[in-house]
Amino acid sequence: MSNEGGPVSARAAPVSAVLRRALGQLPNGGPERQAVEAGEIDAVIDYGSARVIAFPAARRALRDAARRTDAARQEAKLDAPVANRVLATLPRAEYQQLLPGLEPVTLKFGEVIHEPGAPIRHVYFPIDCVVCLLATTEGQRAVETGLVGYEGVVGIALALGVAASPVRTQVHVAGTALRLPAARFEVELQRCPQLQRELLRYACVKMAQARQTVACLIAHVFEQRLACWLLMTCDRSKSREVLLTQAYLANILHVRRESVTLASGSLQARKLIRYSRGRIAILSHKGLEAASCSCYSSIEALQHLA
Questions:
Q1: Domain for residue 201, yes or no?
Q2: How many domains does the chain have?
Q3: What are the contacts of 245-253 at 24+ separation with CB within 8 A?
Q4: 209 assigned to some structural domain
Q5: What is the pLDDT of residues 249-299, one digit of tens each?
Q6: What domain range includes position 120?
Q7: Residue 142 lies in a domain
Q8: Are strands 112-114 and 103-107 parallel, antiparallel or unpaired?
């Protein structure tokens, strides 16, 4: 074993009782004991216990090497492109404070992250997944009021001092996210002024988008709304293809399944989308944008304020 700290001998530093016993088993005057005395050996093998016993200096060298490796990995993480837009806006020092607490997670389609009135235990920064914000009624009917993708945060209520979720948050497009425990998030919110500003700005934008969604529901025909909604979903997942059944779309968009069939069939006939067995692919982003209502451009304009 090599040692960056230089030669090590049995007398170079205090040794443990285990190591002392192992050294005591070496023959006097033998080549092994001579090599130890000359500082040419950093560790011995105790064949009785099948253990490798390192000298103190060797252990320190290994610990130092491990610390350097960890530091290099941490630096590589900091230098890697940040896929979540909110995190990407943070100064390097603030992002470095957050990084140890950010846990990568994979979110499955249909997974419920938060329930209305339940404590928010984690805040999520989506990478390539999309989370749907759902308002629920007495009969547990859920209606979509907003979408969150790589541009935002799930659990924004915590930044406003509200510990319970006001809406159901459910995974709409499966993918990855970075998760931060609520307690850690609240601490970092106080320590990171830029994070606080970004989240307050984002919360304001989400409220404006929710109002626009309500206006869209009242003012525009469903085919326009569907085109707008598909564009927003694909934009936030950074993909031109999503897996969504007609039954699911009808439920969260609060329409009959026949309405989804007719609207998606019309968009497909115009070669704007391809829809087969729950797989929806956007064939023409510009064409679908022209077929959607003005709410798409309005919501996207709001999005760039965040």
A1: no
A2: 3
A3: 245/278, 246/278, 251/142, 252/132, 252/134, 252/142, 252/143, 252/144, 252/172, 253/143, 253/144, 253/222, 253/225, 253/226, 253/229
A4: no
A5: 998 888 999 999 999 999 999 999 999 888 999 999 999 999 999 999 988
A6: 85-192
A7: yes
A8: unpaired
